Structure formats: C-alpha cells, structure tokens
C-alpha cells in the first residue's frame, strides 16, 4: 500500500465526495462486489467459528481510496436509515448484492432449517450475532444492520485496511492506519450505541455515566482508538517559532474535540469531558457564559427579576468555513408552549444594556439577552455538550434543570442552524420540561413530533420496497423492522399491521426536510440516539403523564420485552384485585419465560397452539401469556440477550440456576450473571459463595467499580482485610468520576480495611513476640497479614497513614457525614510517636460545623490539643508578661487557639471541663482576664448555674440536685472550685476589675458551695478539701 501518498486532506476529500450523491452509490462498482464477497465469507466463517480464507491483499492508492469511500458510504447509509433520515433510497439494490454473495458463500454448505426463512432474515441474523460482545447482544431489530457490519469489517478487522500503527513515527504521518483511527473510534462508539438497551428511564441511556459495566472489551477498544485518534489529530506537518501547521484542518480538530468530549461522557469521565470541551471552545474561539438578566417569565409578572440566560458569540472569521457554506434554514418543527401563565420566552428588560457587567468577558459585555448574534454550528454543539455534561454529572434536581434549559434555548432561538443540531436542542429542552407541570405537555408533544419527523423519515415505504424486490422475501423480512406510519391530511389513516400506528401529526412536506448529508454532518459530535432509543424516550415521556398503556404499546412495537414486562408489572398493579400488584409480576414472569422457553407439551395439547419459533412475536398478546405454559425446553438458538433475560428470570423466581445458565450461555463473559448470583448468596449470608461469585465477575469485567467495591465489602465481612483493601483500591482506580469509587463510602471502607489490617499486624507481632518470650515454637505461617504487607512493601505505620488518608478523602467527599470525620480524628490522634494535630483540628472543626452542638465535643481530644499547645514556651512580649501572646499565623498553636475561641467556646453550655480547657489555654497565652472568666464559667457550669451572679444559689433545683446526690458530680464541683480559687490566686491581681479583691471573691465561691453541700457531704474527704481552701483564704 502506498502509505506515503495518504493524508488527512485526502481522507476529508473522500468523505466530502458524498455531498452531492447518495451514500449507496459507492456500491456500484466491481471493487465493492469484491469487498462484499470477502465480508460475507468472513461473516459465514465467523458464524461457524472457522477461519475464513483471506489471502488477498489491498494495494494501490486508487484501490485504497475506493475501499475507504465504500466504508464511509456504508456507515453513512446505515446512520441515515437508523438515526437521522430521510428514507434510504435504493437500498434494495444493495441488499441484492449482499444476498447474491451470501447465496454463493452458503451454496456449498449443509442444509439447515434456515432455508425455510428468507435469505435476508438469515443473513441479518448472522450480522447481529457478529456484533455480540461479552455476552451482550445488540438491539435485534436494527434495519440494514449489514451496512454497519460491512463498514466495521472494512475499518476494524485488519483484513481490508491496516489497523496497527507503524513502529516508526516518521512512517505514520501519512499512514492510513493512523488517520483512520478516528473512523475506528466512531465505529466502536456506534457499536456500543447498538449494544446499549433502551430502558424506562429519563434521558438517553447511553449519555449517562456508568453504563459500561457489561462490555469491558468494547470499552478497551474505544479507549485504544481514542488514544490513536488523538495522536493523528495532534500531528504537525511542520512547526516553526511563528506558527504550527497541523495535518488536520481547524474545523476537523474542533469536531474531533467535541466527539472526544461525547466519548468521555459515555465513559463517565467528567474531568476529561470538560477538558475536551474546553479545547474545542479554544479552537473555535467561541465565547459564552451562563449569566443573569432582569426579565419576566410569566404573563402576569409586574416586576423584573433575575433570569438565567446564556450569552454567546462566535469568532468572526475572515473566510467562510464548510459549516457556513452548507447552512440551511430547514429545521424540525418546534412546538409552541401555549400556556396561560408562562411566556413562550423570557421577556428581558432592555434598560440593563447600558450597565457594565465586569464579570463577563469583554466580547459579551454589549450583547443583549434577547438580541444575540448568530452562532456557528460547531458553537451550537459546544453549548449542547456543556448542557449534556451538566445533565449527566449533576444531581437530578430543579436547580440543574434551570441551568441546563438556557443552553438549549440559546440554540433554538438562533434563526438558522443545522437540522440535527436543532433536533438535539429540542430533545434536550423536552427532557428538562418533562420535570415541570406547566411544560410537561409541550415536552411530550415535542418528543412525539421528533419521533414523527425522524423515526418516520427512517422508515422505508412498504409499497415501494415490495414493488422493487417482490413479495416473496419481503413478507418474511419486513416484520423485523418496527415501523410508524404517518398519513397525509387527505388520506384516511388505516393500517392492518400492528407495528404501524398512525400519527395525529401531519407528514412533513419534501421542502421541509433537510438532506441526508446535512443531517449527518455533526451526528457523531452530537452523539445522537438511534431511533429506537428516541422512541424509548418517548415511551418514558408518556409514563410521566400517567399513560403506561402508550408506553406499553411503544415497547411492544420495538419488541423490548424486558421493558414490556416492566410496564405490565406497573400497569397491572392498579388493576390487581388484592391491590398488591402480584398479578403484574406474574405477567412479567410469563413474558420472560415466553422468550426463553418453549411451551410445555401439555399446554400445547390443551390449547391447540403451535409453538412456532418464527412466529411474528410483535403480534402476540403478551398480556394473555401464562408462565405455567412455558416450562418446555429452552429455545434453540437462544434469543438475543438471553443472558440478560435469564438474570431477570432469576431475580423474579429467586432461582440461582438461572444465573448459572446465563453465565454458561455467555461463554463465561456476562459479569452480571455472577454478580446476581453473588447477591443471591449474600441474602442467604453465604459469604464464601458470594465471594467466589464476585471473584468470577471481576475476573471478566475488571473495569466495574461497583463490583470491586462489593467484593471489598464481602472480604471485609470475612475478615480478609488485605484482600478487602486491594478490592477497594481497585474500585477507586477503575472509577471514572472525580470522586472515585462509590464516593465517600468506598474511601471510608478502604480506611476501615487498612486500619483493620494494621491492627491485625500489631496483634500478630505481639502474639509472635509472646511465643518467643515463652520459648514456644513460633510459626511464620500464622502471620498471614504481616506477610501480605511485606509483599506490598508496606509497614504497619504506613498502613495507618494510608488509612488516615482514605478517611480524609471520604470525609472530604461526604462533608455532611460527621462519623467519617470522627474516624479521621481518632486515627490522627493515635499516630505515634507524634499525632497529626493538623488533621485533628480539621476533623474537630468539621464535626462542629456538621453537628453544631455541645455533644460533638470530645474532651479527650480537646485535652490532647491543649496539652500539645501549652508545651510550647511563650516568648516574652515588649512590655513584659502583661501582653497577650498571639501565636504566629499558620502554626499548630494558632490553629488550636482559633478553634477554641471561634468554634468551641460559643458551643459550651453544660460541660465544665471544656471551660477548664479554655481557661488553661488562655492562661498559656497570658490572657489573664479571659482565663479567669473561663474558670468562673467552668465553676458555674459545674454547680448548675451560668448566670451573672457568682453564687451556687443561681442554679435550678434540678441542677443542684445532681451534685448534691451524685458522687461524681460532687467531685467535679470540688475540682472546679479548686481551679477557680487557683485562678483567682494566680490571675486575679493582674486583672484590673478584680485586683486585690480576689481573696474575697474566692472565699465567696467556696462558702457558697459549702453552704449548699453541708447536709449532703459534710465529713467527706472532698469536704475537707473545701475546708482547707477556706483556711488558706483567711485574711
């Protein structure tokens, strides 16, 4: 292959060659038939687990160009048919090419039951099976799936085009394998989107993080292609001091960064997604900000209040880029709100335009919120990607919705934009408006309009297809494609096919539709959902307004039987006679068993039904199915996603055999099967069996932080602390979010595992030392934890430090969980030889912030802080010892003083020991008045009164009764009285307000306590202490 003649410019020219022609035109030459023949032979060999003969090599620059164009055309046609529309014309001729080669490849094979089916059905079934990965199957009813498999074969198999990068960098600059890595990344991403199952939940399933748990192999392929594509995009043609000239043009680099951001969103990497978005913004020169402006949102609002708005401005370029050259005014229909209270758009006040807004960039200062400049398509995608990141990684609450909506509104308000970009903006707005009662109606209808305009556009005309292909094969093949039919106003809506419901919205005119090339131009950067995902979102939208029946019909048409079972369980709960919804669960069980098992022989004889495996399952009345009639043998071959169905059946019937069967069918690759089996054993408290199941699960999927964390929990329960610590560390390292693992829980558990490991090592060493001292035989095999620590190169002290670091990280993430901060304090204070006082102070401060009560104060910890602080000698001031000492800022003494004065002292109400510590700390600082005041408050708190009078009689009767009857409380009162007398003696003369009267005040305090305690404690040893004090205080 002539690698040195290949460049990104040539790749872009090949891609642009479809601007004026159909994607399927690439199949109309001899080269395409030759490559199709190779693909079909490879597919058939793969289905029989054989190695196909691929001895021919690709050579010649012209031949490579044709092959790449063929791959681009195949992928573009597939996306046109399944994602964007319009209807893919001329597909029957391409199908004939595939079927002709398929017939030739299978002509010498053995006959099978597949011959009773249409060849196109058998062929597409093989294509679907070739996309299975890690025991997970794609959506089984994808139209024209052979086009995607063909493109995937060309770009990723390594048979037609090279996939390995050259070892020498100089050779890779013009290498197709390097520059096609971006295309391989797109192929792998779309492969995942076909794998991802639509579900009854908000938002597009594959735009949420944490969805990669079942396909780790595909994730590794995506990450590898992403690195290779990054290498290609960042490649330079030449670099000088003045400028850098890249191999890829600026528009391509912007689009790659946007696709990279979408990829990181799928992977769950928020930080990397924002970094990629920032790179795209800088390359585009785009400036935008989420700001506020005065305006009115309702019709009856009299005063202007602050409203969120996105201010944005594109960079003005001297030349017109490709995106501006293909700009179009054709966009999907945006439905009006028509609400009696809310305005269609926020009505902003114009008087604020003259006021400077220094917090905004200079280029946005003069922009009016209701009159903003037109943006470029790439900048529209930047706004929508920012909204997607906020939606994916932020809490699902009203504040997040208010932040996201202005981004979509800014794109919708632009006068002219790309068809697919506008569609995505309408979809984002509809997702947000589903959460508000006044906008939910528009949201559902808008999503219905998108389904009618996009999904119907991708549905071929039945009559046209039959005329061109004939009825022989089409009668069997066509039911595999779920359809929607939209009838014009002048034609009555009638359909005899259950898969073709009519729509109340009129079909769009041809002049109101955009070209396929315009729709596909930014489909990868937008990460647009396939049509079955979009229709699944519509089903969820109907459930938000209480129409489970509409959602059920959509899922039945899409043949998403798991979601059908969920809808049946939910809708039947309201109709159940006993009101507990048990009938719904039984119907769901029947649906799952119907998909996995054949009918029992008794049931077939009694009902007269024929168990036809080729029955058009979309026409089956699933609500009438009975689980008891499907206990026959398993269906062979098993249905798509059989491992997932077996796991669901295991959950319903609580039978571990179904989990084991799911594991076997997936060739021991479906991690969810072992995870479900592990949870089954956990419910029965079978810890060893649960651990074994989770070990198998993480063995096939080492990228799932949830399973690693769960395994750590089990090891922690079994007392295997080294293994638990390793599992929690794997959970943290494999997590994609900023926090790591499962937020604070995993970090806290890691700290617990490391701390327990440390204690186990200390216990083993102590036991070993005792045996040596007693001349007993000491076996090193009894020191398993110590040996594991040596293997990891960790000492006991290091384990303790790592445990503290883990607890600190967990406490930082869960800043409202005071128990984790308490663990931080305990560990930091127990470090030897020197406790980590900084962490102790940090922990105490956070516990006070969270609990804000006196009960949060730990006297032992506070005593440790005061003792450490007062060990430091106080330097003499300029004016002698009369000057209050202020510790240098940043020292531990300064932190302790600030903690006591600002956080602890305001909380103390009943704890006299805390006041005593405050007094001691103030005396160390030479704050004599403060120390004496704290000693007085400690004494008043001990005797039960905190009033202004220095008398024991100020306390209530209930408070007096405690120290008059309780020996421990009486001991505290004597101690506080002794401390107060000592404070008067040491500091009283130095306080101007007391001076020489300190003896009188001290005698008054002692006399007050003795007067109240005479009847209860006279003759006690502590009574004698008070008597000795009075003797010493006599004049």
User: Would you report the number of β strands?
Assistant: 5
Largest sheet: 3 strands, antiparallel
Give the overall pLDDT as a whole number. 81
Distance between the termini: 113 Å
Trace the largest sheet across and list its strands: 4-3-5
SS content category: mainly alpha
Helix content: 55-70%
Number of helices: 45
**Radius of gyration over C-alpha positions, nearest whole angstrom:** 37 Å
Question: What spatial form do the alpha-carbon principal axes imply?
Answer: elongated
Strand content range: under 5%
Low-confidence stretches: 110-115, 461-502, 605-609, 945-961
Provide a descriptive summary of the structure in words:
The chain has 1035 residues and is mostly helical. A 3-stranded antiparallel β-sheet has the order 4-3-5, covered by helices on one side. It has a two-stranded antiparallel sheet with strand order 1-2. The radius of gyration is 37 Å and the shape is elongated. The model is unreliable at 110-115, 461-502, 605-609 and 945-961 (pLDDT under 50).
Structural features:
single chain; 57% helix; 45 helices; mainly alpha; 5 strands; 1035 residues; elongated; 3-stranded antiparallel beta sheet; 3% strand; two-stranded antiparallel sheet
What's the layout of helices and strands?
Elements: H1 8-16, H2 30-47, H3 61-84, H4 91-106, H5 119-130, H6 145-156, H7 169-172, H8 176-179, H9 181-195, H10 216-233, E1 236-239, E2 244-246, H11 250-267, H12 270-284, E3 287-298, E4 305-313, H13 322-325, E5 342-348, H14 377-393, H15 398-412, H16 419-433, H17 440-455, H18 462-469, H19 471-477, H20 516-520, H21 523-526, H22 531-544, H23 548-558, H24 561-575, H25 582-596, H26 601-607, H27 642-653, H28 656-665, H29 671-683, H30 687-700, H31 705-718, H32 721-734, H33 744-773, H34 784-791, H35 796-813, H36 818-830, H37 837-851, H38 859-870, H39 892-904, H40 912-924, H41 928-943, H42 957-965, H43 967-987, H44 998-1017, H45 1021-1032
Antiparallel strand pairs: 1-2, 3-4, 3-5
Helix pairs in contact: 2-4, 2-5, 3-6, 6-9, 9-10, 10-11, 11-12, 11-14, 12-14, 14-15, 14-16, 15-16, 16-17, 17-22, 18-19, 22-23, 23-24, 24-25, 25-27, 27-28, 28-29, 29-30, 30-31, 31-32, 31-33, 32-33, 33-35, 35-36, 36-37, 37-39, 38-40, 39-40, 40-41, 40-43, 41-43, 42-43, 43-44, 43-45, 44-45
């Amino acid at each position: 292959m002539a690698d040195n003649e290949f460049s990104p410019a040539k790749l872009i020219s090949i891609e642009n060659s479809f601007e004026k022609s159909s994607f399927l035109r690439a199949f109309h030459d001899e080269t395409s038939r030759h490559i199709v023949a190779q693909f079909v032979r490879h597919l058939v060999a793969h289905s029989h687990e054989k190695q196909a003969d691929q001895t021919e090599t690709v050579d010649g620059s012209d031949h490579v160009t044709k092959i790449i164009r063929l791959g681009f055309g195949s992928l573009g046609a597939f996306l046109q048919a399944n994602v964007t529309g319009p209807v893919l014309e001329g597909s029957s001729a391409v199908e004939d090419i595939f079927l002709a080669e398929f017939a030739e490849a299978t002509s010498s094979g053995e006959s099978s039951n597949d011959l009773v089916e249409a060849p196109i059905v058998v062929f597409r079934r093989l294509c679907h099976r070739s996309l299975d990965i890690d025991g997970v199957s794609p959506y089984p009813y994808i139209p024209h799936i052979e086009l995607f498999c063909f493109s995937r074969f060309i770009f990723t198999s390594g048979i037609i085009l090279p996939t390995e990068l050259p070892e020498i960098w100089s050779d890779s600059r013009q290498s197709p394998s390097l520059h096609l890595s971006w295309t391989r990344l797109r192929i792998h991403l779309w492969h995942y989107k076909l794998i991802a199952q639509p579900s009854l939940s908000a938002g597009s399933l594959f735009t949420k993080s944490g969805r990669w748990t079942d396909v780790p192999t595909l994730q590794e392929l995506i990450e590898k292609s992403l690195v290779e594509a990054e290498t290609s995009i960042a490649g330079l043609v030449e670099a000088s001091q003045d400028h850098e000239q890249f191999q890829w043009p600026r528009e391509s680099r912007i689009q790659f960064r946007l696709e990279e951001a979408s990829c990181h969103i799928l992977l769950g990497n928020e930080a990397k997604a924002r970094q990629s978005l920032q790179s795209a913004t800088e390359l585009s020169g785009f400036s935008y900000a989420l700001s506020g402006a005065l305006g009115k949102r309702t019709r009856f609002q009299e005063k202007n209040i602050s409203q969120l708005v996105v201010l944005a401005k594109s960079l003005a370029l001297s030349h017109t880029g490709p995106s501006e050259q293909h700009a179009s005014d054709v966009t999907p229909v945006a439905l009006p709100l028509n609400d009696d209270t809310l305005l269609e758009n926020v009505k902003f006040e114009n008087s604020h335009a003259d006021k400077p807004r220094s917090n905004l960039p200079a280029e946005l200062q003069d922009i009016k919120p209701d009159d903003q400049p037109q943006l470029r398509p790439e900048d529209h995608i930047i706004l929508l990607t920012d909204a997607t990141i906020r939606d994916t990684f932020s809490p699902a609450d009203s504040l997040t919705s208010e932040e996201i909506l202005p981004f979509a509104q800014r794109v919708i308000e632009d006068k002219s934009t790309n068809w697919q970009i506008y569609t995505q903006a309408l979809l984002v707005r509809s997702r947000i408006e589903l959460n508000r009662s006044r906008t939910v109606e528009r949201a559902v209808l808008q999503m219905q309009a998108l389904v009618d305009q996009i999904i119907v556009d991708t549905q071929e005309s039945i009559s046209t297809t039959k005329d061109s292909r004939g009825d022989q094969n089409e009668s069997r093949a066509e039911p595999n494609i779920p359809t929607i039919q939209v009838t014009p106003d002048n034609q009555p809506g009638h359909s005899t096919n259950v898969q073709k419901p009519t729509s109340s919205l009129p079909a769009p005119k041809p002049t109101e539709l955009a070209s396929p090339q315009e729709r596909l131009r930014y489909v990868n950067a937008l990460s647009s959902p396939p049509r079955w995902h979009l229709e699944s979102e519509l089903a969820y939208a109907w459930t938000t307004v209480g129409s489970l029946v509409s959602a059920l019909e959509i899922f039945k048409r899409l043949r998403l039987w798991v979601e059908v079972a969920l809808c049946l369980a939910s809708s039947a709960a309201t109709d159940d006679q006993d009101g507990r919804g048990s009938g719904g669960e039984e119907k769901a069980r029947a649906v799952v068993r119907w998909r996995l098992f054949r009918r029992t022989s008794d049931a077939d004889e009694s009902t007269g039904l024929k168990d036809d495996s080729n029955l058009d399952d979309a026409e089956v009345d699933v609500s009438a199915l009975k689980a008891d009639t499907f206990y026959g043998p398993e269906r062979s071959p098993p249905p798509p996603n059989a491992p997932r169905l077996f796991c669901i059946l295991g959950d319903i019937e609580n039978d571990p055999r179904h989990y084991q069967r799911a594991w076997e069918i997936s060739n021991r690759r479906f991690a969810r099967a072992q995870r479900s089996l592990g949870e089954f054993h956990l419910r029965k408290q079978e810890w060893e069996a649960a651990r074994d199941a989770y070990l198998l699960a993480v063995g096939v999927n080492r990228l799932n932080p949830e399973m690693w964390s769960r395994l750590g929990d089990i090891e922690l329960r079994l007392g295997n602390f080294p293994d638990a610590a390793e599992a929690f560390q794997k959970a943290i390292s494999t997590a994609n979010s900023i926090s790591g693992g499962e937020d604070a829980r995993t970090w806290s558990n890691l700290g617990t595992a490391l701390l327990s490991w440390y204690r186990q090592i200390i216990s083993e060493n102590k036991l070993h030392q005792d045996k040596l001292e007693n001349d007993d035989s000491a076996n090193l095999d009894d020191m398993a934890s110590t040996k594991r620590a040596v293997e990891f190169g960790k000492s006991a002290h290091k384990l303790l430090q790592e445990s503290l670091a883990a607890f600190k990280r967990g406490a930082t993430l869960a800043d409202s969980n005071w128990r984790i901060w308490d663990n931080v304090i305990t560990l930091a204070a127990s470090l030897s030889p020197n406790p980590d006082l900084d962490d102790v102070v940090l922990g105490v401060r956070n516990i006070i912030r969270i609990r804000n009560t006196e009960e949060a104060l730990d006297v032992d910890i506070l005593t440790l802080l005061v003792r450490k602080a007062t060990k430091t000698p106080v330097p003499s001031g300029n004016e002698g010892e009369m000057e209050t000492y202020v510790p240098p800022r940043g020292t531990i003494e300064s932190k302790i003083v600030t903690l006591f004065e600002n956080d602890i002292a305001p909380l103390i109400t009943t704890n006299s020991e805390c006041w005593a510590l405050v007094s001691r700390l103030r005396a160390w600082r030479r704050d004599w008045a403060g120390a004496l005041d704290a000693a007085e408050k400690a004494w008043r708190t001990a005797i039960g009164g905190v009033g202004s009078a220095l008398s024991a009689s100020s306390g209530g009767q209930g408070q007096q009764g405690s120290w008059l009857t309780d020996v421990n409380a009486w001991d505290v009162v004597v101690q506080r009285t002794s401390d107060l007398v000592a404070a008067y003696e040491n500091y009283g003369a130095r306080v101007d307000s007391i001076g020489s009267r300190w003896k009188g005040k001290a005698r008054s305090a002692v006399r007050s306590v003795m007067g109240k305690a005479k009847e209860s404690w006279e003759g006690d040893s502590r009574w004698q202490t008070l008597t000795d004090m009075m003797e010493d205080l006599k004049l």
